[in-house]
C-alpha cells in the first residue's frame, strides 16, 4: 500500500470515528436521568441511586418529575408539596432512607423559611397577573400576613410584613 493510500485509509477511519459516537458517549447518553429530546425520564439511571425503586419510589418519581418539568421560576418552586411527601415517606422508612434524613434536622427551620418566602412569591405572582395597583397588592399581602399571625402570634415579626419592591 502506498503512503497516499495509507493516509486516505487513516483519514477515512478518523472521519468515521468522528461521525459515530463512541461507546462512552452512548453510555453517557443512556446514563442521563432526563432526555430533553424525548422528554423521557430514565428511572434506571445510576445517577438516581435507585431512589425510584425503593419504598418511597413513587413519591420520589412524583417529586423528580415535577422538578424536571417545572416551568416556575426559580425552577421547582412549584414542587414543594411533592418533595415534602417524599421527605415524609423517607421518615416513615428510616431503615431504608436514614442517609437521606441525616442532614434534615438542621434544614427544618431553613425549609420553613424557604416555604414561607415561596408562598409570598407565588402570591405576588398571582396578584400581578390580576394587574392590581401596587398599594392594593401590598394591602392584600399585609392582611394575609396578619391573618396567619393571628393563628400563631409567635410568627408576627416585622420581616414577615416587609416585602421588598
Automatic annotation (TrEMBL):
Which Gene Ontology terms describe the biological processes this protein takes part in? protein import into mitochondrial intermembrane space
GO molecular function terms attached to this record: protein-disulfide reductase activity
Alphabetic keyword roster: Disulfide bond, Membrane, Mitochondrion, Oxidoreductase, Protein transport, Redox-active center, Translocation, Transmembrane, Transmembrane helix, Transport
Q: What is this protein called?
A: Mitochondrial intermembrane space import and assembly protein 40
Q: Which PANTHER family match?
A: COILED-COIL-HELIX-COILED-COIL-HELIX DOMAIN CONTAINING 4
* PROSITE patterns named among the record's database cross-references: CHCH (PS51808)
Location of the region described as Disordered in the Swiss-Prot/TrEMBL record: 1-37
- Stretches of Polar residues bias are at 1-23
Its domain of life reads Eukaryota
Q: Does the keyword rRNA processing apply?
A: no
Chief location: mitochondrion
Gene Ontology, cellular component aspect: mitochondrial inner membrane; mitochondrial intermembrane space
